[in-house]
Every structure is written in structure tokens, then in C-alpha cells.
Amino acid sequence: MTDLATRSDNPVLLPVAPAAPLPLRRPRPARLRDGDVAAVLAATAFLTTATWARHGGVDQLLAGGNETWTSIARLSGLLASVAGLLGLVLVARARTLERRYGLDHLLVWHRYLGGTMAVALAVHVGAGFAAWLTPDQGVLSTVADLTGRVPYMAPATVGALLVAVVTVSSLRSIRRRLSYETWYFVHLTAYLGLALAFAHELYLGTDLRDDTVARALFVAAHVVVLGALVWGRWGRLVAAALHPLRVTDVTPLVPGTVSLTLGGPNLARIEADAGQFALLRPLRRRLWWQAHPYSLAAAPTSAGLRFTVKDRGDASGALTRLPVGTRVVVEGPYGTLTPEVFDEGRALLVAGGVGVAPVRALLEWLPTTARPVVLLRARSADELVHLEELRVLAAQRGGAVHALVGRTVSLGVDPFDPAVLRRAVPDLAGRTAVVYGPESLLHAAHRGLRDAGMPTEHIHCERPWW
Amino acid sequence: MPAEPASLARRVAPALVLTGASVGLLQLLDRPVTVETGSDELSLPVPGAGTGVAGTTSPTTSATTGATTPSTATPSTTVPATPTACTGTTVTGSSVSTRWGAVQVAATVTDDGTVCDLEALRYPNGDSRSSSISQRAIPLLEQRALADGLDFDAVSGATYTSEAYRDSLQSILDG
Fold first, then answer.
1. Pick the CATH number of B89-174 from 3.90.1010.20, 3.40.50.1820, 1.10.486.10, 3.40.50.10240
2. For the domain bounded by A243-334, which CATH number is listed?
3. CATH tag, A342-461
């Protein structure tokens, strides 16, 4: 347990508070409420099911035989396209959604909706096949009908295959083997898939072909979502690219890890808060086409946006070697785990590995009332690049830093065991926790804190941004 | 030696290959099989008749059949033998599209203005399911329309074809 000892009385090793830079403007809080989202979801589900029911879906479902399959195919088809649309809304970077839920949570829901769409699509294809199949018609002939002979079905078939490829490429086991960019570009072909399927939805589906109102709503929903996507993904990117920041400082922290500071005149356009992350896109050969998320490693001020970049043997390596003056397009910052989360109360900050950077930024802007306790988990001391700074920042606010270094198996202690947590942070139940770290750490920490008596609404978890 | 970041070309290649394969597959699957694209003359695939092999479903346009009356070898399987007594002007109705293909009816109208024969010039047959439905429905529709006029009962399982058939016939009677 010696590693968990409090050492807030360590000497100050690094100057932490810079001269007098002014904080950047903070993003407006979200006005969206959970109820609004629930209402939209309920209305969507109701309209979808009602469209199906209004056109005899229930009677058809109970009619038996091919009619039943047709009914199932209709409903699953509608659900698949609605799930697809909602999934696209989540990745349109709608500001109000992002401010309320955070990009990483939206991506998690996008993943769920994508999975839902894939399942609904599989049901749709299967039921459609069963509905079309008749005793006097062979299986091959049915397949030939539904993959090409019936109008609009050839593009729909190709569209479904594309969605299947995208789904498979997103399965965790496959996704791990692909580079992020390869996976991303394959993922983009989902748009082509949805577009190819669109005509058969309009002209073959009983629900949309014969109902002007349903059809108009369906088309309008697609137009709105497409507009939101074009603006949120391309419009904002173009706007950011027209006003790039510049690299103002690159300071090595430990071998292979640098502190990267971005600034310049366009900094004034940025609204940012501690605890957020931004997508960085250096305008350099071989780097301009890819953006990578990095957490702010310091509270955002007129001195610049500071990031901690570790060379992980991919594009991040090039990022550690950017010359001063390089233009960098900054999207965001995004993220909802800002100092407001603590609501002036006492804070518990848990970080694993690369999660140290946002914790450092948050600490800077925490008031002394927060009396922050920081729990750090790292496999090796190299990962704790900001340890001394964290100790100073925590000490200034009447808090402490506990670091546990080493692999869990060799340590022989579960750092997130409720008893261990309670011993390290006796007033745990009265605090609000923010957890940054890899998924396994998020789960372990969430479970441990909950079992140690912290109310779950006071536990906030976020995936780390390196 | 620090590794160079991967090039855009390398990362985007799988997606481009996938897109190309999709376009290719689309070309392969999207065969022009609906009769709607045929000429106004006659584009009935003739099941079992000489020109087309049943199953290939390529539209057989009888370019050699000239003149105004579209009367190629009427497949006996589809249309009952024309009564010899029925003579008159052949009037072609408008082509009515349905989701499974177009329906177009031609009527033989006698001098006193009664319809004594009907013939479907087009009917859904782009896919095998539609073909088999039309094989069953078209003769029934002809019988029912000749017996009951426009008020004939729709053939069950062929609702779209029945409605389109009625509309096409209506266009003839509206003349």
C-alpha cells in the first residue's frame, strides 16, 4: 500500500502558474434536456410504428403465410431506415447534442443504433425473402428477383451489402486489426449504402409509396439529417480550416512525449474549457487528411491550447516533431467533463494512462473548495508525465495525489476495491468523481466507486483522448 | 528512424476498392428486365414462344410487326383464343405503371361500340414472381372485364395489376 501513500508535501519542481494569461471564452452550457431527446425519440418510434399500423400492418402480421412475412419486412425496413437516420444525427456534431452529452457518448449511442440498424436490416432481408418465396418458385429465382429483377432492388441489394461490410468492420475484433483511417474510410461507404437503398424504400414499400404524408415526412427527415451532416462535418471543418492555429511551442517532457502548444491570432475564436478535447489536423504533407483527438493538458488561456502528445508509432509521432509555426486546424473543443461538473463541491479525479492530461487541465481551474483528490493508475512511471505538476496543483487546492504504478497482476492489489478506495478517500461519498481512462479502467473505477458508496449520478466517465 | 505516417492513398484504398466493387456489382445486378422500357409497339415477352427462352426474361420487341395493331403471336397460355366473331377497331389504352411494372390494355371495339375482346399488351413480368402472378391474373382479368365491365372484381393477390388494368381499360372507354 506504500504506493498509494499521500505525498502532497513534495517540493515544487515545475513552475505551474504562468504569468497572467486570460482564460478563453467558455462554451455556452447546453439548453437541451433529457426530456427533449426522449420526446423526439418517442415521437419517432410512434410515427414509424403508426405508419406501419395505419397501412394494415397488424392485420397483415396476423394473416399468416407470406402476408405475415411481408408485414415483418415492412416494419423492420422502416425501423432500419429510422435507426440509420438517428445514428447519422448523432455523428452530425450537432452543437446542442454535443454540449449536453459529449462526443464520446454520442459515438457510443451511434454504435448502438448502428447495431440496431444492422439487426433490423438482417430481419428485413430475411423476411422480405420469405415473403417473396412461393412454392411454385424456386429459391434461386426468388433471389434473382430480389437482387435485380424487381425494380430498385439491385441498388438496394448493393446498399445492404455495403451496410453489412461496414457493420463487420466495426465489430470490436475486426476493428482492432484495422488502422483508424482505413476503418474510417470504409465506414464512409455506409453513406453510399443508405443512398442506394433509398429508392426502394420510396417506391416498393407499401407504407411510403401510397401515403403522401408519410412519404413527405420521410423525405423531409432525410433532407434535414443530410443538411445537418453537411454543415456539422464539412461546414464546420471548412470554417476551422480557414482559421487555423499555429504551433507556438514544442517542449519535450520525457523521451517520446512532448507538450505541444497551439496559439496565434485565431486563438481568440476558440471557445474552450478545461477537461475538453479537440481534433487536431496539422496542415502538413501526409498529415492534413487525418484528425486526431487530444485532451487539453492545461486550462485553455490566451497563452494557447496545450496538449500532451506521445509518439505511439503512428501519425502521433509526426505530431511530436511539428516545427514551430505549423498551421493546425482545430475542431472543437468537445467534451462535457468541465469544472462545472463538480458544482463547487469536492472533487475526485481518477485517471489511467493518457487520462492524466485532462485531469491536469481540470485541476488548474478547480476552486480551493474542491479539495481535489487525484487517483492515478499507470502501468509504468513513464506514463505519469505530469505527476509533479499534478501534486503542486492539488496541493494548492488543499488536495492530494495518489499514484499506483505497475501492472495489476504484479501489484497483487485491486486499486478500485471499495475498501481500498474508502481508505484512500474517506469522504468519498460526498464527492463528485470524474474518471478518464481506458475502457477497462472506466468500468473498474465506476464499479468500485459505486460499491464504496458514491451515488452513480456523481460518477462521470469519459474515454481518454490521447 | 521515425516512421513516416501512412499515406492517404494507402488508407483510402480499401474503401475505394469497396466502392468500385459496389458499382460493378450494381451493373451486374441491375439488368433491364421491365417491359416499361420497350417501345410503344409491343414489348411482351412471350412465354414459351419461339424468340425468347423462358427464364431469360429479356424483353422481346417484335420490330418486324408493323402497322397499328399490336398483334404478335398471342401466347395461348396467357390469353384465351380470340372468338372469331369478334371484329372491329383495336383501341390501345394508356399505359399505367405499378410498382411491379406497367399495365397496358388493348380493346377490340365493334361497330356498335361494345368491347368484344381484350388483350394485355403489357403486364408486370420483370421478375419471376410478377410473371407468375400475371400469368394467372391477366386471363382472369380479361374474362371478368368482358363480363362485368369496369366494375369487375380485382384478382386476389394481384391488386396492383387489377387496378392498373381497370385504369387502362377506363382510358379506352373514356376514349
1. 3.90.1010.20
2. 2.40.30.10
3. 3.40.50.80
Partners of A142 on chain B (C-beta within 8 Å) are: 128-129
Total residues belonging to chain A: 466
The contacts of residue A51 (CB under 8 Å, 6+ apart) are: A78, A207, A208, A211, A214
What confidence tens digit (pLDDT) does each residue in B120-174 have? 998 888 777 788 888 888 989 998 998 888 888 888 888 889 999 999 999 988 8
Search chain A and give the residue with CA nearest B10: A182
Residue of chain B minimizing CA distance to A152: B30
Calpha distance A268→B18 (Å, rounded): 42
Q: pLDDT by residue (tens digit) across A315-342? A: 788 889 999 999 999 998 998 888 888 8
How far apart are alpha carbons A98 and A208 in whole angstroms?
32
Q: How far is CA A418 from CA A257, A423, A433, A444, B146, in A?
A: 33, 9, 14, 10, 86
Find the closest chain B residue to A321 by CA distance.
B2
Q: In the A/B pair of chains, how many CB contacts fall below 8 A? A: 105
CB nearest to A314's CB, from B5, B25, B31: B5
* pLDDT the model gives residue B35: 45
Asked if residues A286 and B4 have their Cβ atoms less than 8 Å apart, the reply is yes
How confident is the model at residue A189, as a pLDDT?
95
- Closest by Cα among A296, A438, A404, A426 to A348: A426
- C-alpha cell at position A385: 508525465
Nearest to B129 among A145, A157, A185 (CB): A145
